[in-house]
């Protein structure tokens, strides 16, 4: 199933308790694409500036990512984000954001992308997410969106309208509580399903994720990687592997969603093992399969 | 395998954001015994005061708990604890403690308990935990202990000696970090295994547990119960079902430990569904088995 992602492309500066790194290739669409392309070809839509290193586009293309939707804004600068992680890596603080080419960016789908059957709307302004759906030629088989506290607080009405247009939502635990107004995650998940999407995945970082679908509430743990070097991009990698796995599935049922969430957990575990995309970008399909099999084995109780 | 638990018996006052309850039967040995007795007969050792309601002892006996080690201290009062939970139920604050008969309590094993093959040392002064092991006639097949921040900070040397005498340790996440001096749980778990016990289970409340055993690090989620009325006793119920499951196992290998941790997660999920022991005390072996099968089904990825 053709898989489209619309999201950000960034150069990140990252400060962790042990190390600092600058000008790392990042952004939701990049992490998503690297993880998703382990399972299915990916169509990427996003904007960069003239400072964007063309070797990064070639690297994505080599991974099976169609970069026809990569818009280079003339005279523009690529989005830049600087963040700092706490001692236990569980909290992060944004030190600076330069929106640059993302300021007022309106994604335009290339004609060849308009028949995409699976669509992922990475975190971004909700009106922009709507505009992507409006550009599709036909209703896709699967539309999943991400969002964040900023849009939950400032674009509530548009977000509620979006929830009725999508099949799945992926958010983290604090966003699920904020969106639902609940204190407990299980209650929050059910409340959000009632707002529209048939499936909800709540990411809990090192604690895994919970899949909500119909009456079913299925918790899955994180893969226990011993080394957490840089959590940046873990959530987007999770979403990428999840969507790639679903796009490659014969049928999108509960079993496929469970497999997809598990693949998401595995991809996220690779991402955090290095700064930026270094580890995820080097993972082979075979290596991902081995860790997935190990993960499923952990959970097989006899 | 005969299963011995030495721990506290309490009357608890519990304040949650939605409700308050007083004089609830509680204590580590009580929650442990109710959960463990779903799987194996239990031998209980603990002290109560003259105020202890005999119907509570009869209730335990009816569940297959041998109360020969229940010491009624003449002129004494039963241990009392009052605690308050935060809005999201994840934090708790002790409002008052009356040690009463636990002040200086030295457990004495009845002669018939000294051949116990599986032993659980619930949270308590480390020297008391040592004294229980000293009273056993022969080395048991399985000794597992719990502990807490107080003893990690004040009885460090005795605790390190205990870690070399036991097969397994069960602690929560913050205790594992404190005991190991690490910032991450995976690293913490490995550090603790190097201190002695062959197996470590780190409980993470609503986020499940991690089993450490040799080189293996196996995360298992919590059972996603929608209703959390009162988390008191969840950890002790977890330990009880885990030890009961191990005591009933043919062989204590990795598969048995995984099953045991899963049974722990299921028992804890019953406990939190009501105040005190009301829900756990009413669970039948059949009901526990059904929820366990459901839990294992959640984790089967195909």
Describe the protein's architecture and organization:
2 copies of one chain form a homodimer. Chain A is α/β, with parallel strands linked by helices and about 300 residues long. Helix content of chain A is about 35%, strand content about 25%. The first copy, chain A, has 11 helices and 13 strands. Chain A has a 9-stranded mixed sheet, sandwiched between helices. In chain A, a hairpin with a 5-residue loop joins strand 11 and strand 12. In chain A, helix 6 packs across helix 7. Chain A is globular. Chains A and B meet through helix 7, strand 13 and helix 9 of A and helix 7, strand 13 and helix 9 of B.
Topology:
The structure is a homodimer of 302-residue chains.
Chain A (H helix, E strand, L loop, with lengths): L2 E4 L3 E6 L4 E7 L1 H9 L5 E7 L5 H9 L2 E8 L6 E7 L6 E7 L19 E4 L4 H10 L6 E5 L2 H6 L1 H8 L4 E5 H8 L4 H10 L4 E5 L5 E5 L2 E5 L13 H14 L6 H18 L6 H5 L2 H14 L4
What is this entry, summarized?
Chain A has helices at residues 28-36, 54-62, 126-135, 149-154, 156-163, 173-180, 185-194, 234-247, 254-271, 278-282, 285-298; strands spanning 3-6, 10-15, 20-26, 42-48, 65-72, 79-85, 92-98, 118-121, 142-146, 168-172, 199-203, 209-213, 216-220.
């Amino acid at each position: 199933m053709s898989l489209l992602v619309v999201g950000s492309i960034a150069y990140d500066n990252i400060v962790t308790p042990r190390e600092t790194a600058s000008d790392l290739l990042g952004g939701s669409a990049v992490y998503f694409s690297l993880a998703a392309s382990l399972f299915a070809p990916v169509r990427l839509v996003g904007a960069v500036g003239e400072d964007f290193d063309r070797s990064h586009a070639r690297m994505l293309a080599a991974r099976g990512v169609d970069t026809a939707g990569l818009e280079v804004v003339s005279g523009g600068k690529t989005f830049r984000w600087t963040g700092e992680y706490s001692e236990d890596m569980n909290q992060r603080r944004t030190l600076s954001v330069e929106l640059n080419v993302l300021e007022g960016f309106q994604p335009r789908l290339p004609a060849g992308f308009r028949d995409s059957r699976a669509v992922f709307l990475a975190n971004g302004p909700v009106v922009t997410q709507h505009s992507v759906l409006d550009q599709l030629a036909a209703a896709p088989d699967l539309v999943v969106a991400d969002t964040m506290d900023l849009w939950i607080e400032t674009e509530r009405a548009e977000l509620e309208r979006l929830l009725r247009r999508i099949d799945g939502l992926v958010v983290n635990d604090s966003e699920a509580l904020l969106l639902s107004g609940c204190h407990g995650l299980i209650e929050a998940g059910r409340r959000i399903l009632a707002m529209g999407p048939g499936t909800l995945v709540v990411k809990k970082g090192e604690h895994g994720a919970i899949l909500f679908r119909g009456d079913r509430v299925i918790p899955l743990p994180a893969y226990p990687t011993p080394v957490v070097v840089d959590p940046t991009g873990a959530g987007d990698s999770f979403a990428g592997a999840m969507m790639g796995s679903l796009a490659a599935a014969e049928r999108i049922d509960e079993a496929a969603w469970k497999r997809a969430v598990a693949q998401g957990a595995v991809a996220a575990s690779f991402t955090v093992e290095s700064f930026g995309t270094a580890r995820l970008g080097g993972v082979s399909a075979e290596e991902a399969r081995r860790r997935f099999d190990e993960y499923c084995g952990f959970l097989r109780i006899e």
